[in-house]
Amino acid sequence: MSTTKHKTLLLDFEKPLAELVNRIEQIRELAEENDVDVSGQIRQLEARAQQLREEIFTSLSPAQRLQVARHPRRPSTLDYVQAISDEWMELHGDRCGHDDPALVGGVGRLDGQPVVFLGHQKGRDTKDNVARNFGMASPGGYRKALRLMEHANKFGMPIITFIDTPGAWAGMEAEHQGQGEAIAYNLREMFRFEVPIICTVIGEGGSGGALGIGVGDRLLMFEHAVYTVATPEACAAILWKDSSKSPQAAVALKITSHDLKELDIIDHILTEPSGGAHTDPLSAAKTLKEALLENLALVAHLTPQERQQQRYAKFRKIGVFTENARKQ
Question: Three-state SS across 133-176?
């Protein structure tokens, strides 16, 4: 990868780190050209770079975490499926004439166990993103997901979903095809399924588009992923008529994994490699696989009725709060 291309993928808050890394490379090259031993200085600078990386990524604001969640090199659903599955076959079509590339799925094996994988799929570059509608699924995508989940339920296979979308496609054609009905139908049916369902927010979990495949027994979330009722930009435009206030909206919306764990909305935070999942996708995939197996084991011993009851109770308690009356 060329230096110019790499720079275009840098986030603003990563620039001091990138400058230090470039400086280390320049010193190393000069030392090799002049046959000078600077290994001690290089080690000190590399230790400083690692320290700076940890300082940056342990103190990210919600708006900065959103940037990480949207990073174009962040691992996608297909990346994770191919990395964690023993074997995998993608299935296509909703049996109503559509095959939405923004929502992918199929059958595979996870540590030898047959499962159904499905999730949102963003593109790697502009052309691919346009082809996959930037991960915004159409009604046909949610109906394809439902078809695969019904297949899983019929044959007793756990359902593994990966959430990564700014939201469902909000175009006129999507409304004509019944976008709201498709998502609502999925919500109802996912509460009915008897097999275990494990959902993971791997990047950006936005609005009903995320919920359309997000009803499960366990909800996992990567450390730098986000999960929100609406994008901060949309929230800022609605509340303040000013999308530039999206950082303020990101704070108010409580979109980060730590906020959502504190609110008891998610069950498990998956630690990312230092610098984000995009810096070491294989390490992130290893963490994901271990978490999926661990959480599947937690719900596998339950009866179908117990799973259904616990799943229903889990979502019914979301948003419940206690308000103390102010003393006069």
Answer: HHHCCCHHHHHHHHHHHHHHHHCCCCEEEEEEECCCCCCHHHHH
The whole-angstrom separation of Cα 140 and Cα 28 is 53
Question: How many other CB atoms sit within 10 Å of the CB of residue 228?
Answer: 25
Beta-carbon count within 10 A of 309 CB: 12
Helices 304-316 & 179-192, crossing angle to 10 degrees?
130
Segment 49-82, tens digit of pLDDT: 787 787 788 888 999 999 999 999 999 999 999 9
For tokens 């990868």, the residue is: 1
My answer on whether 307 and 186 are in the same domain is: yes
Residue pLDDT, tens place only, 177-194:
999 999 999 999 999 999
Do 40 and 78 lie in one domain? The reply is no
Q: Which residues contact 161 (CB under 8 A, 6 or more apart)?
A: 117, 118, 119, 145, 197, 198, 199, 200, 213, 214, 216
* Domain boundaries, position 51: 12-59
- CA separation (Å) from 28 to 15, 32, 34, 40, 53? 20, 6, 10, 11, 20
Select from 209, 192, 179, 124 the least CA-distant residue to 152.
Answer: 192
Q: Check residue 4 and give its pLDDT.
A: 38
Distance CA 256, CA 270 (A): 12
- β-strand pairing of 268-270 with 87-91: unpaired
